[in-house]
Design brief:
about 150 residues; about 25% strand; 4-stranded antiparallel β-sheet
């Protein structure tokens, strides 16, 4: 099972946000992709959890570039919501695009989902949830910021 794993973080169940000490996610790994649909990628991130029999199984796998894309998307969303209070509905219905981030010769669009029929209510709940998760997000954000600054030196 571990032949392609290079980096491992065991005990994730102890720090899994609001699920800490109750999570079935036990380990995070980095290594060669294990799922067939990701075989074209060189590195993937894996999330391992316990199945009903107590065995560790691969629950999720993302190619490493998708992990970065999610971090970029999340980070831009967090920045957006720092200023969203300026809009009456927490967004501008006429301009739902937050930013178009250049990646790999294309763009990663970050937009408010105006296709959601309940966006005016859902965005308020989302903004409140971000606020409620402040201590969980903030600690991880500071840690990521520190590590990214270290990476700038290499």
């Amino acid at each position: 099972m571990n032949e392609k794993i290079v980096m491992v973080s065991n005990g994730y169940d102890r720090i899994d946000g609001r699920n800490a000490y109750q999570s079935d996610i036990r380990r995070l790994t980095l290594g060669a992709p294990m799922l067939e649909e990701n075989k074209k990628m060189q590195i993937a991130a894996q999330i391992w959890k316990l199945d009903k029999d107590g065995e560790l199984i691969l629950a999720e796998e993302l190619p490493i570039h998708q992990v970065f894309d999610l971090i970029i998307f999340l980070s831009r969303t967090l920045l957006y919501f720092k200023e969203a209070y300026r809009f009456p509905f927490l967004y501008d219905p006429e301009k739902p695009t937050v930013e178009r981030i250049g990646v790999q010769g294309g763009v990663l669009p970050v937009e408010v989902c105006v296709d959601n029929q309940n966006i005016n209510e859902d965005i308020k709940v989302f903004a409140q949830s971000l606020n409620d998760l402040g201590e969980l997000i903030g600690e991880r954000q500071r840690t990521l910021n520190r590590i990214l600054k270290e990476l700038e030196h290499y």
